[in-house]
From TrEMBL:
The protein, known as: Glutathione S-transferase
This protein's UniProt keywords: Transferase
InterPro entries: Glutathione-S-Trfase_C-like, Glutathione-S-Trfase_C_sf, Glutathione_S-Trfase, Glutathione_S-Trfase_N, GST_C, Thioredoxin-like_sf
Pfam families: GST_C (PF00043), GST_N (PF02798)
UniProt organism field: Bradyrhizobium centrolobii
């Protein structure tokens, strides 16, 4: 069994089960990508709450695993070659777990890259733009007198939803009948946009019928329901 004690993060968040994959996270749209993925593929893991209220993400121990100070991050004791693998960035973790288990990523090379392109679409567009809508609509940004930033991010979010709508028309999932890491990468973000951020009316979500149906299908999955609440908030 791999010795995880050499990783500083285990000093602050000790592994009770060091033989299992260690997940360091919080149930945010980025964090739940990995907990949903782990629940979907059935890979045993141990979860550690990174409490933003206590600035856990800024501690030397966490930064030793992710120098960018963001969640989620993992430490897999059974990485490539049987050696421990520390990994951050949710998109990279999704791809790693899919390749490690052979699940939720098509084996066909062309379809594999097409799936990955949608993950990058989420990482480069959906996440940043929806997150800015949340900031300027729900959080401190809502008090800014200049409403141009909010308008900019709302317009771009509507455009991105339009891209999703066009692609999902006539499809069950982003890769047709195959539920993949592409879907997992986006479910939490769309849910947050219309739910927690309360921006559904702002982005005219009611006009995106295919996206709404896709979201409903995704949220109905038992593994998604479990993953959305892992780890439990303090």
């Amino acid at each position: 069994m791999s010795d995880l004690s050499v990783f500083p993060i285990t000093k602050r968040w000790p592994a009770k089960h060091p033989e299992l994959l260690q997940l360091y996270s919080l149930p945010t749209p980025n964090g739940v990508k990995v907990s949903i993925m782990l629940e979907e593929i059935g890979l045993p893991y141990e979860v550690h709450l990174i409490d933003f209220g206590k600035d856990d993400q800024k501690t030397p121990e966490f930064l030793s695993l992710n120098p960018n100070g963001k969640i989620p991050a993992i430490l897999d004791p059974n990485g490539p070659g049987g050696r421990p693998l520390p990994l951050f960035e949710s998109g990279a973790i999704l791809q790693y777990l899919a390749e490690k288990t052979g699940k939720l990523l098509p084996q066909d090379a062309a379809r594999r890259y097409q799936t990955i392109q949608w993950v990058h679409f989420q990482m480069g567009g959906i996440g940043p733009m929806f997150g800015q809508v949340g900031f300027f609509h729900k959080f401190a940004g809502k008090d800014f007198e200049d409403k141009r930033p909010l308008e900019r991010y709302v317009d771009e979010s509507k455009r991105l939803l339009g891209v999703m709508e066009s692609h999902l028309a006539g499809r069950q999932w982003f890769m047709d009948d195959d539920y993949t890491i592409a879907d997992i990468s986006m479910l939490g973000w769309v849910r947050n946009l219309v739910g927690f951020y309360g921006a559904g009316e702002l982005v005219e979500f009611s006009q995106f019928n295919s996206v709404a149906a896709w979201l409903e299908r995704g949220l109905a999955r038992p593994a998604v329901q479990r993953g959305l609440n892992i780890p439990k908030r303090p």
